[in-house]
Structures are given as C-alpha cells and as structure tokens.
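Q: Structure tokens for this one, please.
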Amino acid sequence: MAALIEAEHLYRYYGKHCAVNDVSFTLTKGEVLGFLGPNGAGKTTTMQMLCGNLAPSEGRITINGFDLLDQPKSAKRYLGYLPDTPPLYKELTVQEFLHYCARLHGINKVSIADAINTAKERCGLCDVSNRLIANLSKGFQQRIGIAQAILHNPEVIILDEPTVGLDPIQIREIRALIRKLGRDHGVILSTHILGEVQESCSHVQIIHQGQLILNESVASLNAQMNTGTLQVTTRMQADTAILAAIPGVSAIETIGENRIVIHHSVSGGAVEQIIETIISAGWGLEELTPVLRSMEDIFITLTKGSE
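A: Here is the predicted structure, written as tokens:
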C-alpha cells in the first residue's frame, strides 16, 4: 500500500539547537499513529513540519506523493489538521462555521451541503447544527474542530491533543471517533495520554531529545506489557544459575527468601521451561505471577535509557 505520508531525514534547528534530529517514518491508510514525547522532545515541532506550518532545516515530506515544500497547495489538499486549541469562531453557529470552513477548503459550491452533512454525521453534530458554538460544551467544540479537519475528506488527518480538558464520557466518545476515522484515513494522533494510544492507535512512535526512539505496533507493545517478567515463590531455594541457563531468560533478581523475579523474552516458550525446571528440580513451586508492564513503564524506561 502506498504511503500517505513519507517523512525522510527531518532536521529542524533553532539557532544551534537541534530540536528534531534525523526523524523518518511513513503513514499508510488505515493506520492510527500515536505520536508521544515528553515536553521539549520535538513532538510539536515535528507536527508543525508535517502540516506545512514550519519548514524543515533538512529533509523531505511528501503527502500522498506531493512534496510539501515544492507543491504545498497540492499536498495540503490531502491534509486535515486539528491543532491543540480548535480554531473556532464561537459567535457562529455550527452550520455557519462549517460552511465557512468548506469555502476555505475550496469545496465545490454544489458539494458543500453534502460535505457538511457528512462531517456532522461522522462527528455527532447533527442535533446542534443551529446552536452557537460559544454555548456548546468543550466536548462538542472538540468535535467541531475534528469536523472542520475532515470536511474535505482528506487522506491524512492530524490531531494534536484532541482530548485535553474533556470529561471521561467525552474522552471515550472522541476516542471512538478517532478509531472510526482510522478505518478510512491515515491518522496521526499527538498526545501525552499513554492510555489513549493503547485505546485508539494501531502504531506508536516515541520521540525524545529530537530523535525517534521507538516505532512499534501497539499489538507488539501489548505483547511486551503482558509478558516478559515473572515473580516466582518456591518452597526451597531455587538454583538461579540453572534458571538463568534456560533459553530466553535474560535476568534474575532475588527479592526475598525463596522469592525471585525472572525477566524473559516474550517468545520461545521460556515460561513453560521455567515451570518444568522448577517442578522437576523439586524446589516446590508455590507461586508464579506474571508482572504486567504498563505503557508508562515502557515510556519511562525508553526516555530514561536514551539520556
């Protein structure tokens, strides 16, 4: 499948400071890419370059085959963008604002009504069409922001912190909408909320000190989080040297009398071999508990490890 976004060796300097350092990635249709990073990591700078609001010092960005620097108008036709603060005119009604945005997007006059109705249906705005934006909740205002980004049915949708400040019900609704958009578009979701990536995204990237330090599928990360560490209690003291020799076992820590933590690879059947070894050696297996890793654990480990 052809890439909707190709970012190649992006650099961005502010004076001598390198805010983005050799970042490359692709986005295809059907992908929801979670873009994570601590404050000052270069995440916002990268997002601004992808949207054409900031030129890279070096590197190249193409959107649906069009170079963003050489053919900006053609490239941006395929791009929908929601900044962290939705660009709303709150004195207008929802219908008036979306009609204004449709004209800005250059939608043919005969197609404007259909485009607005489709965006309102997808974002759950049909019942508030004639209400002033100023009188709507923050959740509805976020929906309106997303609606203006998808009015022209772009191939690529970039959402910057779309659930900040929302209540739990509104967050759930926006995440469901993002998952739905991901079926027909390529979506980049910038967020500080790690659980949001697990719920809404198919892939995740972590940027730290201007460099990409992780580019993985969420399914792969979930596999890492659900396995990889075992807490074991035995009746008699286990011989850690024998356990350490099992293929796939990477490290063993003693945490108490007859209690150890075993770190192991997620493939190769290491867990089964650990259990069989303990039982056959007669150490008396009393407890074996997988220790779940959270997305926060992985994020902290990666960002600390790269410093």
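A few notes: The mean pLDDT is 89. Residues 91 and 132 are 6 Å apart (CA to CA).
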